[in-house]
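To fix ideas at the outset, we first show an illustrative case, written as a sequence plus integers encoding its fold:
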Amino acid sequence: MAGYRIDAREDHKRIVAMPGYMEGRNPTGEHFGFTNYYMEKNGRPFFGICGEFHYCRCPEDRWEDELIKMKMGGINIVCTYIFWNVHEEVQGVFDWSGRRNLRGFIELCGRHGLYVIIRIGPFDHGEIRNGGLPDWLFGRPFEIRSNDEEYLAYVRVLYKEIGAQVQGLLFGQGGPVIGTQIENEHGHSAAQWALTTGISNQWVNTGLEGEDHMRKLKQLAIQAGIETPLYTCTAWGGANAPIDEMLPLWGGYSHWPWIYYEHDRPGEKGEHPATPEYIFRDKHNNAIPSSYNFEPRYWPEDVPYACCEMGGGMTPFYKYRFDFPYVSVPAMTGIKVAEGCNLIGYYMYRGGSNPTGRRDLYLNDLATPKISYDFNACIGEFGQMRESYHRTRLQHLFFRTFEDWFCKTMTILPGDTAQMDPYDTDTLRYAVRAAEGSGLLFLNNYQDHAETRDLSVAEGVTVETRKADIRFPAEGPLLLAHDSFAMLPYRLELDGILLEHAMAQPVTRLELQGTAYYFFVSPKGMPPEYGFVSATVSRLEAGEALVSERDGVTLVRPREGGASPIRMTTASGRQVQVVTLTDAEGLSFWKAQVWGEERVLLTDAGLLVTEDQVKLEVTDAEEVTLRVFPDLEGLGTVAGGELLERYGDGLFTAYRFRLPSKEVRFGIKPVKQDKAVLTFEPDAFDGRKEVLLRVDYRGDIGYAFIDGDLINDNFSNGNTWEIGLSAHRERLVRQGMYLYISPIRKGSTVNSQSTMAGWSEHAEEQIAQLQHIRAAAVVELVLHRG
């Protein structure tokens, strides 16, 4: 395979201040504002990382831990829909209690240092019934999503209610709410009117009166007291986005269930195409005024390119079942950031379960599961932390550690990428973000709905800079495993050491007793290598690493693993150490302020850190190890387990803990092949944070009930169905539960031409079978400071 080159000699980005644009200050003097390229906090670049979490789709007693998980994952802004029909399902009766307690949710965000963007509709979509509009709006003698005064009268009531809930919590009042999204995809997207589905199949209109309506809604929000520094709107698909009033937001998904709606593709049941999302583009460049999934009605460089719906997952639709690849999410993150995005946003970041209603029991979009809104998100419906959560956490740590420099880097492409074929997975995809001679080389070997393979680029990738041409790697082939992604730095200063290039991905920096520690992770399939400008290194110790000199660059090829750092001293005596983690270690890498000191930690458990305690969330295991650097001073009590040993492990101190056996005791009574009754012992949930019921089955849809109440459902895609039970523990012990699998009908024919309501169906074969049911305990080990 031929080598690849990219010309990064001209890497000065045009960045201009935007005083008065999306600007605000709180009572303590903290200030948010914007340049045309990135958000600023107190006059410095701020890399925003938004994660969508719908409070109403999660029991309120779970909110706090889930928000801590988001913070631990690197999220600094929580975005949440406020679904109108969830709060005013019955006209004139608003419900802000329990899992609908918007105020309580925002207060928890503020308590944990998370900013908030509220998405106030009135239309949201979000795979909720009618896109969030109440049923009682259907058929009214006015146009919804328009400036019709009769419609706006109802909107005023909604906004007034929201305004009352957020008073005292807005940024200008000292609260965490920094932004407000107006409407959603106005002029582009709609939803089914649930009252008509299956009969006349009517749809909500896509929105009328264009940008005038969007401006009117913002005016109404301000009149209702919803005043925030930032106002946003979605802009893709030609949606209405008045950029003088709102920051336009973009996104992209690897899985598109909407293409399977019958009204979109009548009679067609084709395969999902490979999307062009995973090809690098430049979306903040006036010379490229539009590109795939980006057709702004403004010059791209006038405002920042920002995202609110990068596919952090996707919910299954009845007609589109898929096995969502979690590796698609960090690849999407890398693509969007490489394109020039300095404000990223995941939809969803934390999945959930649809609330039930008072008037209409089920509030879901009728093409999606009634209860489950897991969305294959980074954090699942019952708090599960997925591979996407762990891999994006590494990216977030980098963006936030280096935001002062990185936000100013510009996108550089190797040429015109517009005609690249997403099915061509043999050609390496690459781009650069750079500023003033230093930069980051992005590599992508992931493509949705297409097969990739391990790549070996014989001549590597060469980045041309004003100083020199930099080859990745210094010699030999560049290797990148299939479905993987990498961000590789060049000419990056590490506290006085100039890193010429690295075949490893930077993650974060830690300062301890005058020494700077830099942590890198080896991308899958890529042997680590560092090139340090020799003139900046007065002393180097690299243990078992291979060290050589070439053209004024000291090449170090270390053994992977956190136990053997590269130790260097600058000419001025500054101590710098570089730690290289394996890909597997990267998935267990965390950074947090623990007991007053910044530390890095390695553990396969979920890690939740607050001011006074460290929680390890462990699933289906009886031992767990926590490696810490620097060591924990004064470890006190250990709740939920016992410390077996403490020992040195290179740079880290390791703690090995034993957890008591937490076998979940329950009984299974099969009823035919498609049904089963489950009973639970009185102590089945004792000492367990969550119990995950794991069900393997063959069929169409899985339903879980307690005495007639549906608690979860699953559109089968061949994977294990996972149900969190702890929210129902009292009823499960008292009443048990039952599972039902609806059949897949092969060769099905229907005859409805008989008299009255006659209906007959014949299927050549019906498949519905429960195969295996088991339970896994999620327990919590809590470490207290001594």
Notes: The mean pLDDT is 95. The first strand starts at residue 4 and ends at 7.
